[in-house]
């Protein structure tokens, strides 16, 4: 135990995907839980390397899938205002992202853009709260409709639609 062990420091980032692959390019990614092939040598934003997003960078992008990824601290190469360039990443969590979520997110972005300056991206947690609120409202409405149908059925009536 006299040797020195390198302890890897991990950071959490996020990534938008389109049908399991890149949003603005072609190709595919490694399966969840597996590391992407590591890019060695010189990396260049938008040309060589992987783009991931810190929380505050998430609102600058959108795709059909949203994942949480882990990146080794040493693999962070460059941080831009809207994205972070890394050598490799590993998907650790996949978020459910439905059409209703996309609409709620788009509505949040539009209302936020209309009422704030270009620095609106600083609060990346807000769109997820909007999605959660929309889901809760939908669930409450569905439960109320189901209860109304149950009551009508027990009286031999049809529920209003």
Characteristics:
single chain, 161 residues, alpha+beta, three-stranded antiparallel sheet, 2 helices, 6 strands, 29% helix
How would you describe the overall organization of this protein?
The chain is α+β, with helices and mostly antiparallel strands and 161 residues long. Helix 1 (99-115) crosses helix 2. The protein folds into two domains: 10-95, no CATH class; 99-154. It has two helices and six strands. A hairpin with a 4-residue loop joins strand 4 and strand 5 (84-86). It has helices spanning 99-115, 126-154, and strands spanning 10-17, 50-52, 65-72, 76-79, 84-86, 90-95. The strands form two sheets. A three-stranded antiparallel sheet has the order 1-3-6, with no helix packed on it. A three-stranded antiparallel sheet has the order 2-5-4, with no helix packed on it.
- Mean pLDDT across residues: 81
Supply the number of structural domains.
2
Secondary structure: helix percent: 25-40%
* Strand arrangement across the biggest beta sheet: 1-3-6
Give the uncertain stretches in residue-range form.
Answer: none
Write down the Rg: 21 Å
SSE string, helix = H, strand = E?
EEEEEEHH
The rough form would be described as: elongated
Gap from first CA to last CA: 72 Å
């Amino acid at each position: 135990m006299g040797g020195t062990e390198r302890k890897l420091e991990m950071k959490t980032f996020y990534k938008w995907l389109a049908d399991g692959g890149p949003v603005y390019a072609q190709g595919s990614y490694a399966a969840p839980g597996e590391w992407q092939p590591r890019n060695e040598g010189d990396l260049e934003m938008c040309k060589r390397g992987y783009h991931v997003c810190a929380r505050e960078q998430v609102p600058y992008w959108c795709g059909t899938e949203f994942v949480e990824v882990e990146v080794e601290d040493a693999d962070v190469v460059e941080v831009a205002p809207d994205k972070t360039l890394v050598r490799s990443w590993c998907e650790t969590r996949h978020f459910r992202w439905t059409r209703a979520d996309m609409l709620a997110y788009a509505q949040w972005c539009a209302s936020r853009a209309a009422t704030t300056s270009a620095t609106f991206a600083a609060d990346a947690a807000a769109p997820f709260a909007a999605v959660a609120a929309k889901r809760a409202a939908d669930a409450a409405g569905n439960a109320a409709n189901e209860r109304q149908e149950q009551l009508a059925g027990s009286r031999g009536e049809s529920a209003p639609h």
